[in-house]
Amino acid sequence: RREPLALINLKKKNEETGEEELASRLDHCKAKATRHIFLIRHSQYNLDGRADKDRTLTPLGREQAELTGHRLASLGLKFDQIIHSSMTRATETTEIISKHLPGVKKTSTDLLREGAPIEPDPPVSHWKPEAVQYYEDGARIEAAFRNFIHRADAKQEEDSYEIFVCHANVIRYIVCRALQFPPEGWLRLSLNNGSITHLVIRPNGRVALRTLGDTGFMPPDKITRT
Fold first, then answer.
1. How far is CA 126 from CA 67, 79, 123, 187, in A?
2. Among 16, 62, 143, 195, which is least packed, fewest CB within 10 Å?
3. Per-domain residue ranges for the chain?
4. Cβ atoms of residues 86 and 113 within 8 Å
5. Local mean pLDDT, 10-residue blocks, the chain (226 residues)
6. Candidate CATH numbers 3.30.450.150, 3.30.450.40, 2.60.40.1930, 3.40.50.1240; the one for domain 33-222
């Protein structure tokens, strides 16, 4: 889903029609619509939980999700879908948000689960996962980026608005990759719980960042970054 020319097998080009046929086939592969990607970080959760199922949202986290859902609904956009991480805190955040967006289809995926995307540069002292974690998580999170962050399909006629509920590390890495920034700098970005990050992908493949980690819709006493 990248440059249209990359989607055409030039060896099969009809020699009789030449450039005219190529132009026609290129036009058939070109995206026409803009994709709006809303990346939502899950709300505050129980940090003491040993297993994922125990890391449920706190009462404040549930309030944050309500505020995020209300904010998304207030935008007046026709959201096409909600794709969320299969981890408990992201699933619970999605359930609360979706109450404010009735009728929007929800889909769970393991690709968006939290993890260690790539070793940060410069390194930090407070977070040093085992090296194997980068190999286990990095390929999956990169796969999530390639699978979800791309220009619209050529068959898509209207602009789309999609919500992805996942995790800070995943969102930070996706933002760096989407903007063609060095992905090793992902840990320099900071995201509040329940925050909204808005990426725009134009038909020509250019990506713009409209908002990063917005929580201006929350009262100050409801904002956390755990």
1. 30, 38, 9, 11
2. 16
3. 1-30, 33-222
4. yes
5. 74 57 77 97 95 97 98 98 98 98 98 96 88 94 97 95 98 98 96 98 96 98 96
6. 3.40.50.1240
